[in-house]
């Protein structure tokens, strides 16, 4: 039996200004699965990730991690898990931002160790070991004492991936991890994500890199106008008889 | 009266001026930080009260504030004021006045930090206090050094206002000697003192700014 890590049910999100962004978003992700979310700009992909990672309160539906409800709506009231459960829930996921959001006043090593030491209460020497190990895997060993401002965008994004991984999340979300990068730098970041996929890291990735999504994903979710238009394995969706809206969208990316 | 004697009399005033300067910074900077946080509070009453406080501090003369603080215990609480309270009143008045200016500088600095920094910290599990003091504040401090330097330089010159409460600071003494000797020299020396004092302050702040520029 596959273990369900993330379960998003009937997710609705309407912003304070009345914009209804998510209408009925459903997504269930198993342990070890890689799911890509693609779709036109403004379709609600970022909003879906922000709701899933508790950065934005939901308006309806529910979000659960490992069978525990993180937030849910009942009779018009939105609830969140109690403090104890929430702590556990928050430790189960990580998020990689489009624009990295590294801490500029910390070195690469500090960026990766600080939350381990001060949030997860990992002993300092172990935190450093983990960081050094991750930097090694992501090809950044020689950058440990650099400040983010002295790194390229691709290196910064790899550090932010290392920062997230250091807390050993069960699932990692990515919001367009390469769209803030110069084209020649996207490859190094995509390579790292592929490497994680081969190690069976559970990942939910919003991306515009169609070829990458096709290669790395177990499942692709195609969003448009706040709802899921199509969902399936890459083969199913990219097949000539796949969803026409999806093929139209992908066609714009010259595939 | 020889130059040496003038200098030695002015010396005591210099020490007083420096005391006022140091104590004011010591109290007004942390106070300003908390005032800024209150000003940004979601609690409408708190942010409202603080807005009024800032408006009064910035909108009325510091000299008047010095007098009000000094006489407040008598007029409000009927407490007899001892002359020893004068120096305390100066420090209180300067501190709450400068805290208002520093608060606005802190507020602008805090608001200039991208929301992504808060969100990254939240995702990594930092609590609110850790996020503010470990992640946000160091970046704020780096950015506000130039406006804080400006205020600090103004403070050096403002210390002379404490003459209204007959504090024997630099300027008060220079004026006294000048009147007694019918000479402008003591005042010129006082001017030189403020200039050198500010030169040192600017130099120190410049060093601090360079030291803090290890990140962007
Ligand atoms: N804070 C907000 N307030 C109001 N509307 C928002 C807010 N954030 C996003 N939106 C709107 O929600 C829609 C979906 O945005 P987003 O989730 O960023 O789409 P995507 O990531 O797919 O490009 C857009 O129309 C956007 O204008
Ligand atoms: Mg987006």
Cα distance spanning the termini of chain B:
55 Å
Work out the number of β strands of chain B: 0
For the record, the CATH class of chain B is Mainly Alpha
What gap, in angstroms, lies between the N and C termini of chain A? 35 Å
| Percentage of β-strand residues of chain B | under 5%
Helix-and-strand structural type of chain B: mainly alpha
Number of helices of chain A: 9
Number of strands of chain A: 11
Query: What's the SSE pattern of chain A?
Result: EEEHEEEHEHHHEHEHEEHH
The residue fraction in helices of chain A comes out at 25-40%
Number of helices of chain B: 8
Main β-sheet description of chain B: none
The average pLDDT score of chain B comes to: 94
Helix content of chain B: over 70%
Backbone shape of chain A: globular
Mean pLDDT of chain A: 94
Report strand % of chain A: 25-35%
Radius of gyration of chain B: 20 Å
What are the low-pLDDT stretches of chain A, counting only 5+ consecutive residues below 50? none
Radius of gyration based on Cα positions of chain A: 18 Å
How does this structure look, described?
The complex is a heterodimer of chains A (255) and B (216). Chain A is α/β, with parallel strands linked by helices. Chain A has 9 helices and 11 strands. Chain A is 36% helix and 27% strand. The two termini of chain A are 35 Å apart. The mean pLDDT of chain A is 94. Chain B has 216 residues and is mainly alpha-helical. Chain B has one domain (3-215): MetI-like (MetI-like fold). In chain B, helix 1 runs antiparallel to helix 7 (170-181) and helix 3 packs across helix 4 (85-111). Classes of the chains: A alpha/beta (255), B mainly alpha (216). Chains A and B meet through helix 2 and helix 3 of A and helix 5 and helix 6 of B.
């Amino acid at each position: 039996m596959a273990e369900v890590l993330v379960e998003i049910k009937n997710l609705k999100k309407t912003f304070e200004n009345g914009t209804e962004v998510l209408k009925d978003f459903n997504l269930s992700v198993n342990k070890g699965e890689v799911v890509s979310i693609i779709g036109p700009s403004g379709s609600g992909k970022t909003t879906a990730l922000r709701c899933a990672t508790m950065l934005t309160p939901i308006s309806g539906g529910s979000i659960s991690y490992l069978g525990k409800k993180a937030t849910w709506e009942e009779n018009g009231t939105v609830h969140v898990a109690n403090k104890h459960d929430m702590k556990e829930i928050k430790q189960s996921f990580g998020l990689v931002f489009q624009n990295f959001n590294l801490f500029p006043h910390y070195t690469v090593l500090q960026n990766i160790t600080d939350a381990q030491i001060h949030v997860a209460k990992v002993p300092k020497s172990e935190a450093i070991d983990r960081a050094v190990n991750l930097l090694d895997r992501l090809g950044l060993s020689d950058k440990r004492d650099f400040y983010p401002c002295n790194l390229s965008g691709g290196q910064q994004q790899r550090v932010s991936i290392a920062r997230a991984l250091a807390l050993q999340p069960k699932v990692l979300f990515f919001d367009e991890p390469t769209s803030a990068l110069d084209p020649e730098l996207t490859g190094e970041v995509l390579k790292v994500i592929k490497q994680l996929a081969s190690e069976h890291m559970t990942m939910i990735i919003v991306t515009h890199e169609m070829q990458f999504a096709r290669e790395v994903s177990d499942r692709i979710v195609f969003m448009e106008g706040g709802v899921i238009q199509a969902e399936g394995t890459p083969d199913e969706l990219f097949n000539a008889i796949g969803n026409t809206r999806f093929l139209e969208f992908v066609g714009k990316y010259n595939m | 009266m020889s130059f040496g004697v003038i200098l030695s009399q002015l010396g005591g005033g210099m020490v007083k001026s420096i005391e006022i300067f140091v104590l004011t910074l010591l109290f007004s900077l942390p106070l300003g930080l908390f005032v800024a946080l209150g000003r940004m509070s979601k609690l409408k009453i708190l942010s409202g009260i603080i807005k009024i406080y800032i408006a009064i501090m910035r909108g009325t003369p510091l000299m008047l504030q010095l007098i009000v603080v000094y006489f407040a215990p008598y007029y409000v609480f009927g407490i007899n004021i001892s002359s020893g309270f004068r120096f305390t009143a100066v420090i209180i008045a300067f501190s709450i006045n400068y805290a208002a200016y520093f608060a606005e500088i802190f507020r602008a600095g805090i608001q200039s930090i991208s929301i992504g920094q808060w969100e990254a910290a939240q995702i990594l599990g930092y609590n609110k206090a850790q996020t503010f003091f470990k992640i946000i504040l160091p970046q704020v401090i780096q950015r506000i050094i130039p406006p804080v330097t400006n205020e600090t330089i103004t403070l050096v010159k403002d210390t002379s206002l404490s003459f209204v409460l007959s504090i024997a600071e630099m300027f008060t003494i220079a004026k006294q000697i000048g009147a007694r000797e019918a000479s402008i020299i003591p005042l010129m020396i006082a001017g030189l003192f403020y200039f050198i004092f500010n030169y040192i302050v600017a130099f120190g702040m410049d060093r601090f700014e360079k030291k803090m520029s290890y990140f962007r």
